[in-house]
TrEMBL record:
It comes from Streptodolium elevatio. Residues 257-433 form the Carbohydrate kinase FGGY C-terminal domain. This is FGGY family carbohydrate kinase. Belongs to the FGGY kinase family. Residues 2-246 form the Carbohydrate kinase FGGY N-terminal domain. One of its GO terms (molecular function) is kinase activity. The keyword Transcription does not apply. Keywords: Carbohydrate metabolism, Kinase, Transferase, Xylose metabolism.
Amino acid sequence: MGVDLGTQGVRALAVTADGRVLGRGSAGLTGHREGNRHQQLPADWWSAVGTAVRRTLAADGTLSVRVRGLSVCSTSGTVLLTSPDGAPVGPALMYDDGRAEAEAGDAQEAGAALWDELGLRIQPSWALAKLVWLARHADQWSGGPRSGIDGSRVCHQADYVVGRLAGHPVATDSSHALKTGYDLHRAAWPTHVHDRLGLDGLRFPDVVPPGTVLGTVCRDAAAHTGLTEGTPIVAGMTDGCAAQLGSGAWGVGQWNSVLGTTLVLKGVTATPLRDPAGVLYNHRSPDGHWLPGGASSVGAGALTKAFPGADLARLDRLAVTREPARAIAYPLVAAGERFPFLAPDAEAFMLGSAPEDDADRHAALLQGVALVERLCLAYIRLLGAPVDAAVTFTGGATRSPYWNQLRADILGRPAIVPEQTDPALGMAVLAAHGIARARAADGVAVPLASTSRGMVRTGAVLDPRPDVTRRFAEPFAALVGELERRGWLPRTTADYAREHG
């Protein structure tokens, strides 16, 4: 079973070794947004997990006793502080919370030599910057002075839920720990950086590789979720990595594009992919490869904001006649861009003529996301990464067949859409891998494909339509030029995108 803690809800999926879905369930989440701040309550996550898992198990009365293991993914960079026993001492700062801009600069400076070595750039959305903000502003959110949070435990979103499942705080995985500053190369926390930032009073968790068995479902969690007490819990990964595992794109040179509220691109390389700008960062795959990738702030969330409650399938049908639309959109979901360039002051805009109706506006947003996706792939190639195979599409936006084809057209390359595109599938894959690895003899390598290949089924293969690809060459060049003119997109990237994108 895989459990995905998303922005707007929790999703759970139970799947067999040959990819048959036995059950699925979901439950909604809400948060509090104010300007560039975004918070959620950890108690709401736990409540939604109980509902989503119970709905998954309800598909089959005997399913709970047949779950051989489960794993949990969550949004990357979401962080909170808890007491030593795991109780939250305040709300969680979500992955797209941008309040820690000054703290990100301080964190970058405090660890400049290390971040340069690792090819990282600390961004306001990263958990490390948020921890500095929490430490400096304890009186604003915890109801007490800074001394009141000393001894608090650093906790990522998935850590909290897994701790509730196990009945006690657990180790975090190296994937969720990355944006908290964890050094994947040395497998250690950079304590000297933490000390310089005034974080020495906080307790950072132990870190294990994704796929490590962390414990089992406790009695209270069994009662809350319907799972069988004693079910193994396997250390997970961030949602972008989960989508990568669920896509089946596990070989070097393969890339997966996850389109949900925002856009995440992640691929597989034999060695870490170095990015001088630090907007692309490298996770570690459970089977030893590296997973470079980045997260843009454009995405399907722009549709939700523009057309709340609308029939998007109807708008898709109307958008077919608007290729290209009158306007060229840069459809940021929230202020600030993270990939393929870093621009905290970036904001959404439209070029050209104003949309003449909802269909035209909808078409412009769909096309705008795909144009940014094309720019992201150009940046990845600029860094020297192989991008040879068809791109795999996952995420909630793949529910739109029209948008899938449009994205393949604008990218000008084939795309594969798996039968199941939910990141929860990736966590089911990781759970299967982790259980198999735990049962293997010491020192025996267990390739991901050998344990989980049958769990990922291909749903559709999309070939780009050359005539449509040609139609979007001019809008792509116009968008690249405007991003450069505004000072957000570096000239080197813009020049490469215009020539090779």
